[in-house]
Amino acid sequence: MNQVIERHDPQHKDKLLALEAQMTTCEQIELETRHYFAEGTYTRELLIPAGTLLTGKIHRHSCINILAKGKIKVVSDEGEYFIEAPHTFVSGAGVKKAGFVLEDAVWINVHPWDGKMDIQQIEHEVIIPSGNQLEQTLCLG
Questions:
Q1: % of the chain with per-residue pLDDT over 90
Q2: Which domain covers residue 56, as residue numbers?
Q3: How far apart are the C-alpha atoms of 141 and 135, rounded to whole Å?
Q4: Does residue 9 lie in a domain region?
Q5: S-S: 66 plus which of 4, 70, 108, 137, CB 3.0-4.6 Å?
Q6: CA dihedral for 58, 123, 73, 24, sign (positive or negative)
Q7: Is 48 a member of any domain?
Q8: What is the pLDDT of residues 5-58, one digit of tens each?
Q9: For residues 119 and 16, what is the distance between their CA atoms, to the nearest angstrom?
Q10: Using CA atoms, how far apart are residues 60 and 124, in angstroms rounded to an integer?
Q11: Domain presence at residue 86
């Protein structure tokens, strides 16, 4: 079931940012997030119930993505995927993703980590705050 439907559509990022803006007008749910730290890595685990539509954060660096449980349709500027656990892949720097969860899911991201234990500081270092800052941030490194 892990199947790429389409590759490299440059308009996906704009469409996903528009979707995210529209989603802010809908009822929001709080997803359970777990944080893990190991030598050189920070791992974020997200528990997502079936029927959830969500958008991901834009990461400054490529990162490892793991679907440890469930089924999800993912759309990004890298392509459209139906993914069934277990599945691991790498997404590039600056990639925006959205997903619709078909079965309860556990989604994991692995990021580089410099030893800081402050989640807000880590997010500042690994996440690009908004789509408007994407090109500038990637160019500045």
A1: 30
A2: 3-20+29-136
A3: 10
A4: yes
A5: 108
A6: negative
A7: yes
A8: 344 456 666 666 666 666 677 777 788 999 999 988 899 999 999 999 888 888
A9: 25
A10: 10
A11: yes
Say if residues 109 and 57 touch (Cβ distance below 8 Å).
no
In a domain, 141, yes or no: no
**Structure token pair of residue 46:** 């997200």
The DSSP line for 11-58 is THHHHHHHHHHHHTTSPP-PPEEEEEEETTEEEEEEEE-TT-EEEPPE
Q: How far apart are CA 129 and CA 1, in angstroms?
A: 32
What DSSP state is assigned to residue 66?
E
Report the pLDDT averaged over residues 129-139. 43
Token pair, residue 112, equals 């580089």
Q: Residue 99 is part of a domain; what is its CATH number? A: 2.60.120.10
Can you read off the two tokens belonging to residue 127? Answer: 């996440």
Structural domain total, the chain = 1
pLDDT tens, residue by residue, 112-129: 888 777 788 877 778 787
